[in-house]
């Protein structure tokens, strides 16, 4: 066991992002404040200087006041935001397994310094060539594709919301697992081009975007594009969106198709509402006739996936077999703007805020 760090742990101040008001619609920078606070003296916790944290769309649900039965609690005005983070240990208590200088991950992001219970810290896997890769959202895609749907040689795989943090890795994972054809969806032609040119998608669909339209017409537009890209139907769906795209995917299902639902962006990032629901009408008769399995994916139900993913992701990165699209914002003051950019669909891949040391 390591001795406690001799680094100073007093007279530290930290800036942190707090919710100022429940957003009306998609969150705006004015809904947040960046406050400077004194860091309390550690009392058995690990003191971590955060280096980077993940900006993720699920925050919309937690901010909107409609969070119910979610794995983590909702946020009220005055609360500090949180999320996956990597940082360097400043000090740890006597007998701790951590020491000053260790790089760890935890969930107390959106602040420069965090006091984290030791049980809430994990050493960043050395298999990853860059600690920021710890913030990749690929474990959900990897878990869904290996535990829920499986991917068989020759499968046609559809990934909705393919330009986000999960989707930008999901199509590549499906290919590495043996898929014959991978199709993605996104909201803009520019992103569609990047999915094909940079990430190896065979086709990228933009019609029927849930950001621009809902209902029957959006479903018809999307179904027409999907029929052209997959004339014989799809075997696997990794769904980040829901809405008309899920409804159209049901109609395109091959016999025995396997669907995994890992996101609901049609509700979470809708301009109206609170992001707490994502209703959609699907053809149950089609599900029955085609023997389609449809299941939601929760990482907590699949222990071991995170560790397995980290090792596999590291190996793929080192071998150059997978790309990790990353958008970086620098400085905690930029964090509310980064969230706005993400929820409005203006970024590609994983979005992180990096926190350089203050001079």
TrEMBL record:
Residues of the Enoyl reductase (ER) domain: 25-353
Family matches, as Pfam families: ADH_N_2, ADH_zinc_N
Domain of life assignment: Bacteria
InterPro entries: ADH-like_C, ADH_N_2, ER, GroES-like_sf, MDR_fam, NAD(P)-bd_dom_sf, Quin_OxRdtase/zeta-crystal_CS
Annotated CDD domains: PGDH (cd05288)
SMART domains: PKS_ER (SM00829)
Presence of keyword Oxidoreductase: yes
Alphabetic keyword roster: Oxidoreductase
Name of the protein described by the UniProt record: NADP-dependent oxidoreductase
């Amino acid at each position: 066991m390591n001795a406690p760090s001799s680094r100073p742990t007093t007279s530290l101040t930290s800036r942190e992002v707090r919710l100022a008001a429940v957003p009306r619609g998609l969150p705006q920078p004015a809904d947040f404040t960046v406050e400077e606070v004194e860091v309390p003296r550690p009392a058995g916790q690990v003191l971590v200087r955060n280096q980077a944290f993940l900006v993720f769309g699920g925050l919309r649900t937690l901010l909107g006041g409609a969070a119910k039965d979610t794995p983590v609690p909702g946020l009220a005005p005055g609360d500090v935001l949180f999320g996956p983070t990597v940082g360097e240990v400043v000090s740890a208590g006597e007998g701790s397994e951590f020491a000053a200088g260790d790089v760890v991950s935890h969930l107390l992001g959106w602040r420069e310094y965090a006091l984290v219970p030791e049980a809430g810290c994990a050493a960043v896997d050395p298999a990853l060539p860059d600690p920021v890769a710890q913030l990749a959202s690929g474990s959900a895609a990897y878990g869904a594709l290996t535990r829920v749907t499986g991917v068989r040689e020759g499968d046609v795989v559809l990934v909705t919301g393919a330009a986000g943090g999960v989707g930008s890795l999901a199509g590549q994972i499906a290919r590495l697992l043996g898929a014959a054809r991978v199709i993605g969806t996104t909201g803009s032609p520019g992103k569609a081009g990047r999915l094909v040119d940079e990430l190896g998608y065979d086709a990228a669909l933009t019609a029927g975007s849930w950001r621009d339209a809902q209902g029957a017409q959006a479903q018809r537009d999307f179904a027409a594009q999907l029929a052209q890209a997959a004339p014989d139907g799809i075997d696997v769906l990794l769904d980040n969106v829901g809405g008309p795209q899920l409804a159209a995917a049901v109609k395109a299902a091959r016999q025995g198709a396997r669907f995994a639902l890992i996101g609901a962006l049609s509700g979470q990032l809708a301009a109206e509402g609170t992001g707490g629901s994502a209703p959609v009408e699907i053809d149950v008769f089609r599900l029955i006739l085609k023997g389609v399995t449809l299941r939601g994916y929760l990482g907590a139900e699949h222990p071991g996936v995170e560790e397995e993913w980290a090792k596999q992701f590291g190996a793929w990165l080192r071998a150059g077999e997978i790309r990790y699209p990353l958008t970086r914002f620098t400085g905690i003051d930029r964090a509310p703007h980064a969230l706005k950019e993400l929820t409005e669909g203006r970024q590609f891949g994983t979005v992180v805020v990096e926190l350089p040391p203050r001079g």
